[in-house]
């Protein structure tokens, strides 16, 4: 099958189906076959979260969510993704406004083929995705690579985040880190602290589930007699982080009352310990993280708008493991050595098909899930070669869970275009088998597990397809 070009998809967002069809056709004829179209702006960010695009083209004037709001969110959490605005207005003011809001280029309707291709190719060059696989982590020069030593990676996407962290580390302004569970948000916060050169401590706390009183006591401390059992003064974490960094994990779960107190700390650099009548000053840098959509919580009235804007002075999104599968080999190597040492076992040989097997799995638990799989496999390991049984059983178990609770389909993310006739069952079967074999690197055992059938059944179908091709 044809390899995707570019490696990450080009996302086109416009409420006019005719525009989507025109742009898609132009790109496809130019050899860019990895294109996703979206006619409902409400679903745009969900598509972005599924797979970070290489370039985004979007209309400014759309119902539901306008283009400017999408640009704001894209630049917040995907600052390196080029944005090309499609506009029906041709004036200098519109062009300037687009550039100020974060767009890298703009195209005037009706879309001209040469202008469109030049803009897209320019955007792809900035992310080195015009020819997949050319970009590597070796091209990044970090000022302080030791700050990122705890993050095991060979991914250009993470090295892009490292350079961003180095550029904002010294400002002292709040940083909001967004990412799925297990992606390493706290490691990014620690790297930011080290890069900043701050002499104080890095102090972290998970604020999920803390009621207002516990939150206040934990962060701000209390004076003697503040409440029953308060026999002496106790400093809060904000005092322990003086001159350093205070990291608040899962900030999206903070109660409304606690949000007000955190806002005051950010605005005034002051806080009030429980039982005290006088405010105290703080010079700690605040870094927060979340795995939830704060924009959605803000829209639902569950998160303060003013606090949200304060927290996201600087912001970044940690890429999930499924979007950086080049990290699988170094992570497996690192966790395997760590597990062997922790369990006092000799490090086993790794079968070649392990990485291929792991590449077929989306890792909803990200790096943390991979670490748990490897430690479990090492705990049960007995021979000189690492058994794949634990990995296969875990992946099969998670796939059974997914089958019982399938994700809600996104219209513009369908496997088949609504503009074309559906393939026959025979054609669809061939497509699925060919795709599974490509993903499994021609390993029939792995391909069969992807398809949910036995290896014998897959072998029989492959022989049947081979006879049809003769």
TrEMBL record:
Residue numbers bearing the 4-aspartylphosphate modification: 59
GO term, biological process aspect, one: phosphorelay signal transduction system
Keyword Nucleotide-binding found: yes
SUPFAM superfamilies cross-referenced by the UniProt entry: CheY-like (SSF52172), Homeodomain-like (SSF46689), P-loop containing nucleoside triphosphate hydrolases (SSF52540)
Residues in Sigma-54 factor interaction domain copies: 151-379
Keywords: ATP-binding, DNA-binding, Nucleotide-binding, Phosphoprotein, Transcription, Transcription regulation
CDD domains: AAA
Domain named Response regulatory: residues: 9-124
Protein name: Two component, sigma54 specific, transcriptional regulator, Fis family
Taxonomic source organism: Desulfopila aestuarii DSM 18488
């Amino acid at each position: 099958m044809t390899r995707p070009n570019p490696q990450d998809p080009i996302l086109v967002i416009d409420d006019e189906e005719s525009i989507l069809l025109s742009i898609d056709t132009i790109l496809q004829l130019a050899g860019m076959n990895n294109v996703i179209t979206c006619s409902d702006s409400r679903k745009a960010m969900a598509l972005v979260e599924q797979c970070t695009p290489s370039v985004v083209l979007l209309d400014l004037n759309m119902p539901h969510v306008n283009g400017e709001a999408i640009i704001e969110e894209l630049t917040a959490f995907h600052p390196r993704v080029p944005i090309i605005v499609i506009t029906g207005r041709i004036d200098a003011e519109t062009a300037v406004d687009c550039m100020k809001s974060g767009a890298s280029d703009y195209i005037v309707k009706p879309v001209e083929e040469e202008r469109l291709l030049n803009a897209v190719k320019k955007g792809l060059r900035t992310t080195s995705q015009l020819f997949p696989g050319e970009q590597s982590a070796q091209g990044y020069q970090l000022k302080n690579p030791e700050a990122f030593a705890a993050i095991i990676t060979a991914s250009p996407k993470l090295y892009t985040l490292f350079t961003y962290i180095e550029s904002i580390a010294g400002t002292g302004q709040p940083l909001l880190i967004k990412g799925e569970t297990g992606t390493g948000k706290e490691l990014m916060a620690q790297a930011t602290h080290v890069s900043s050169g701050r002499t104080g401590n890095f102090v972290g706390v998970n604020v999920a589930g803390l009621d207002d009183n516990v939150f206040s006591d934990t962060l701000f401390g209390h004076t003697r007699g503040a409440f029953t059992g308060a026999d002496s003064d106790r400093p809060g974490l904000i005092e322990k982080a003086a001159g350093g960094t205070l990291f608040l994990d899962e900030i999206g779960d903070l109660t409304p009352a606690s949000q007000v107190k955190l806002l005051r700390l950010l605005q005034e650099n002051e806080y009030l310990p429980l039982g005290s009548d006088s405010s105290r000053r703080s010079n700690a840098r605040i870094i927060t993280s979340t795995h939830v959509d704060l924009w959605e919580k803000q829209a639902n009235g569950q998160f303060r708008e003013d606090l949200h804007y304060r927290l996201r002075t600087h912001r970044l999104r940690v890429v999930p493991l499924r979007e950086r599968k080049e990290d699988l080999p170094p992570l497996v190597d690192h966790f395997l050595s760590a597990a062997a040492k922790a369990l006092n076992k000799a490090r086993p040989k790794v079968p070649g098909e392990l990485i291929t097997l792991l590449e077929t799995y989306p890792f909803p638990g990200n790096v943390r899930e991979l670490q748990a799989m490897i430690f479990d496999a090492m705990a049960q390991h007995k021979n000189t070669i690492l058994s794949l049984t634990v990995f296969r059983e875990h992946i099969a178990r998670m796939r059974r869970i997914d089958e019982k609770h399938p994700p809600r389909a996104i219209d513009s993310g369908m496997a088949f275009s609504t503009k074309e006739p559906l393939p026959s069952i025979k054609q669809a079967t061939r497509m699925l088998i060919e795709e599974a074999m490509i993903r499994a690197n021609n390993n029939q055992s792995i391909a069969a597990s992807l398809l949910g059938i036995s290896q014998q059944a897959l072998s029989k179908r492959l022989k049947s397809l081979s006879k049809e091709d003769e």
